[in-house]
From TrEMBL:
Keywords for the protein's UniProt record, in alphabetical order: DNA-binding
Record field: transmembrane: none
KW DNA-binding (keyword) present: yes
GO function term, MF aspect, one: DNA binding
A Pfam match: HTH_3
Source organism of the structure: Amycolatopsis azurea DSM 43854
Recorded superkingdom: Bacteria
Protein name, as recorded: Transcriptional regulator
Domain HTH cro/C1-type: 21-66
InterPro entries for this protein: Cro/C1-type_HTH, Lambda_DNA-bd_dom_sf
Length: 71
């Protein structure tokens, strides 16, 4: 069984703020599969640092606006 990550994210909210961008559209822009985006959104997978920066750039925000780690 895969242990969920402690990293949370705001990807779903950011997608909807971007005119309801689909998971597939985000996946295409980042160069991953839709299933990878789903897993990241649901907290079942932590992206690499490079992918995290790519996701943040798609939305034009900082890394900490997309991903949060508890204190």
């Amino acid at each position: 069984m895969v242990k969920p990550t402690k990293v949370t994210n705001s990807i779903r909210a950011l997608r909807f703020a971007e005119g309801e961008m689909t998971q597939a559209e985000l996946a295409d822009r980042v160069g991953v599969t839709r299933q990878t985006v789903i897993a990241i959104e649901q907290g079942r997978y932590s992206p690499s640092l490079e992918m995290a920066f790519q996701i943040a750039r798609v939305f034009g925000v900082g890394l900490d606006d997309v991903f949060q780690y508890p204190d």
